[in-house]
Amino acid sequence: MKKTILTLTFALTTLTFCNAQQIEMEKVFGGYKYTQNGTLMKMKDLVKTMESNQQAFDLIKKAQSNNTMASIFGGAGGFLVGWPIGTAIGGGDANWTLAGVGAGLIAIAIPFSSGANKNAKQAVELYNSSLNLTSYYEFKIIGNGNGIGLSINF
Fold first, then answer.
1. Which helix (H) or strand (E) holds 112?
2. Within 10 Å of residue 74's Cβ, how many Cβ atoms?
3. Rounded CA gap, 79 and 30, in Å?
4. What is the 3-state secondary structure (H, E, C) of 22-85?
5. Distance CA 35, CA 24 (A)
6. What is the pTM of this model?
7. Which first-to-last residue range defines the signal peptide (predicted)?
8. CA 27, 78, 70 angle in degrees (round to 5)?
9. Is 118 strand, coil or helix?
10. d(CA 148, CA 19)
């Protein structure tokens, strides 16, 4: 029984490391969510991970720049829209010109955000395709005259 548990533990540990470097993408509202080994990756983590692949690194750096610009314009625009709305809710005289300028800044942020998502997606696809993913594994339960066993083929 101890040998079986040890074998299964070894097999699962080995399988965990087989695809350890691949980055998974999941489509979410407004872009993608990136994970590696079940851990959520931020943009700086993606940049650090892709340093070994120059083409993917260039794309992810471009995505990081676009993401920064989108955050600046979007944050400033959100503030300029939110301030007059808060003033109006509070009963004051709102300056709707600020809200218009803020809406314009938000509109400027959208193409930057879209470009960041596009470049990051391409970088992750390029990075994953460059990994050596030729190793695969297969589980089989084998029974013969000597008993039942588990076969793992790589």
1. helix 96-130
2. 19
3. 20
4. CCEEEEECCEEEEEECCEEECHHHHHHHHHHCHHHHHHHHHHHHHHHHHHHHHHHHHHHHHHHH
5. 5
6. 0.68
7. 1-20
8. 50
9. helix
10. 29
